[in-house]
């Protein structure tokens, strides 16, 4: 699906170049609302009338309330820039598809919110504004988590800023640990973290009962984007630096064999059928699962489930970081205003607003993050909150590339699911992943 969208974009861009000037735009947008961006003609009229520069931004529909919350004080603070938000698209795929259509049709969009998997594809098609020099001059390491910007670099160039940062952490059920008389898992990251072997041993110790009464020691989704957390701490990756696929690596397969055995043989992890039927948050709250490795995007639902919980580091001490991106368009007619809006979206003030209203997860602004630690992640001990923020300095992004979206949807997710439900062995799935990756990338 994602590959088809990119191919469509490339083709439509060629057509739009050939027929430049022949297409017309949509209707005018109301400032701050969820309507479609104004047409190019309307924008020209706007500039002729001497109105403030309008920056047109596209986000998923569920981000609209957050955008309104952010831009109200931004508009009140100055008169030079107004931001109009199009939030008519549903989800990341919806935004990407609509953005593709608008770019090909000659419509102007200045900023869009996209998922990590789409980001390199728009870079490859030369659709994004290079903000590398501005970022290095403006975003100091004292103010920002620069490791996150580094993770967004493509060939040492930056083409967007983080919407938010999510990491995998281990949520644990305190009642289950207390009942077993066991110490809580460590909040330490890096070399002092608990190990993959510790985690497997804990799974055995906290698993008991049979049938509907069974309690499980651990759970992580059997999905290779998630299980990468066990690889990063050992210096492993699914891809070499030159993107040679590593699905034939013996240790990577061994880790997944261990996980496969935990689900299908030892049953120290609940299987997909139980998780899909009951829901992991509910299993965790009901005392059926003691350790639940998931992203911080799940925090609110876990808190609202009523579980007595806290968090620890993921086994191995290096976790996976996920970063969605605000991307500026290369064809923007007002790059300075567009850059000013990007600066605001990751500024101290904007990030504090997001934290205080529990929106969009951890932020790249270090100072705002440190000042707001006591205002977010409800239900955690101070040590647990510190553990989540320490994860920002101990995370690694997944390797993505222009063909990543296609590989994810056509190969990696199906293979993960086949192993999760036991319809494929690890060797069968990884052999196919290696072959698919080599064919896709010509390696």
Word description of this protein:
By secondary structure, this protein is an alpha/beta fold. Strands 1, 2, 3, 4, 5, 6, 7, 8 and 9 form a 9-stranded mixed sheet that branches. Helix 1 runs parallel beside helix 4 and helix 20 packs antiparallel against helix 21. It is globular. It is built from 21 helices and 9 strands. The longest helix has 17 residues, at 2-18.
How many individual helices?
A: 21
How many angstroms separate the termini?
A: 23 Å
- Helix/sheet category: alpha/beta
Give the averaged pLDDT, no decimals: 87
Oligomeric nature of the chains? single chain
Main β-sheet description: 9 strands, mixed
Helices and strands, in order, run as: HHEHEHEHHHEHHEHHHHHEHEEHHHHEHH
The amount of beta strand, in percent, is 5-15%
Q: In which range does the helix fraction lie?
A: 40-55%
Estimated radius of gyration: 23 Å
Q: How does the overall form come out from the CA principal axes?
A: globular
Low-confidence stretches: 1-46
């Amino acid at each position: 699906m994602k590959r088809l969208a990119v191919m469509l974009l490339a083709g439509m861009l060629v057509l739009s170049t050939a027929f430049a000037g022949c297409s017309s735009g949509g209707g005018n947008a109301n400032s701050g609302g969820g309507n479609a961006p104004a047409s190019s003609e309307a924008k020209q009229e706007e500039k002729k009338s001497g109105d403030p520069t309008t920056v047109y931004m596209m986000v998923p529909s569920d981000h609209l309330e957050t955008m309104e919350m952010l831009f109200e004080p931004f508009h009140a603070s100055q008169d030079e820039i107004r931001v109009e938000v199009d939030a008519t698209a549903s989800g990341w795929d919806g935004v990407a598809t609509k953005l593709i259509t608008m770019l090909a049709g000659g419509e102007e969009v200045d900023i869009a919110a996209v998922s990590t998997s789409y980001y390199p594809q728009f870079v490859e098609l030369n659709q994004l504004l290079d903000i590398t020099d501005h970022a290095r001059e403006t975003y100091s390491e004292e103010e920002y988590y620069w490791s996150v910007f580094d993770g967004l670099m493509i060939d040492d160039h930056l083409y967007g800023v983080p919407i938010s940062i999510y990491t995998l952490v281990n949520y644990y059920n305190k009642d289950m640990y207390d009942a077993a008389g066991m110490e809580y898992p460590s909040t330490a990251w890096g070399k002092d973290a608990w190990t993959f072997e510790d985690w497997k041993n804990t799974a055995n110790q906290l698993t008991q009962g049979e049938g509907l009464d069974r309690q499980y020691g651990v759970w992580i989704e059997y999905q290779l984007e998630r299980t990468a957390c066990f690889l990063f701490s050992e210096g492993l990756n699914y891809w070499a630096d030159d993107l040679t696929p590593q699905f034939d690596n013996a240790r990577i397969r061994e880790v997944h064999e261990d996980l496969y055995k935990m689900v299908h043989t030892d049953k120290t992890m609940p299987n997909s059928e139980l998780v899909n039927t009951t829901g992991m948050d509910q299993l965790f709250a009901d005392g059926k699962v003691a350790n639940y490795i998931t992203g911080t995007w799940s925090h609110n639902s876990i808190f609202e489930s009523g579980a007595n919980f806290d968090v620890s580091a993921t086994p191995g001490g290096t976790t996976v970081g996920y970063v969605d991106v605000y991307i500026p368009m290369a064809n923007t007619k007002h790059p300075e205003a567009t850059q000013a809006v990007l600066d605001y979206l990751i500024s101290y003030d904007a990030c504090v607003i997001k934290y205080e209203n529990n929106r969009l997860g951890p932020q790249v602004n270090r100072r705002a993050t440190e000042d707001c630690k006591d205002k977010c992640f409800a239900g955690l001990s101070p040590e647990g909150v510190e553990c989540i923020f320490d994860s920002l300095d101990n995370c690694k992004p997944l390797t993505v590339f222009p063909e990543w979206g296609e590989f994810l949807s056509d190969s990696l997710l199906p293979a993960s699911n086949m192993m999760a439900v036991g319809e494929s062995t690890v060797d069968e799935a990884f052999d196919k992943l290696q072959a698919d990756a080599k064919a896709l990338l010509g390696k």
